[in-house]
């Protein structure tokens, strides 16, 4: 067991296609649920994983529900993944309503950082209910936004509506982005984008985390002044 751990290439954990090859659609569904429903799921590769899922949509469908139609396969992936994301947010919302005060009193550890909760709360206060939609496109924030919505006792019906809209839009954007970018690059430049999935993942991470990093940097600068 020890030798297996030593010989394992841990850099594989940063590659979205690793998760696709390891557990296929079922692992993707779990990761999306965990990232949006469990407070320790903020480190999971949601955006890049869904983008890669768009590229590998036919491969994912081949092991589960292959319809022999590329676009229909993609739409079924969208529905299934969206459902898990919606359920994940519902769990986060329920968790926030039940244990909000406890979280704010909890000490920081490797899994939990109170500053993440504070950032999500600030984001929610600024954008209101629409923050549930916006947060879907922001790593870390999307994990804690439903928890904060539960803590501040956001109206259930309002939360359900924003939750469905935000999740459906996020999953669709990521899947379509991966699916069509792969097709366009293959058509125009004649190479397989899957061979460069590491670069694609890094670009997606930079794009999606840039707003969060920008806000954190300037908030620290302002606090120092």
TrEMBL record:
Membrane topology: Multi-pass membrane protein
A matching Pfam family: VTT_dom
Annotated localization: Cell membrane
Keywords linked to the UniProt accession: Cell membrane, Membrane, Transmembrane, Transmembrane helix
Transmembrane segments: 25-50, 71-95, 131-152, 159-179, 199-218
GO CC term (a single one): plasma membrane
VTT domain mapped to chain residues: 44-178
Source organism, top-level taxon: Bacteria
Family to which the UniProt record says this protein belongs: Belongs to the DedA family.
Protein name (Swiss-Prot/TrEMBL): Membrane-associated protein
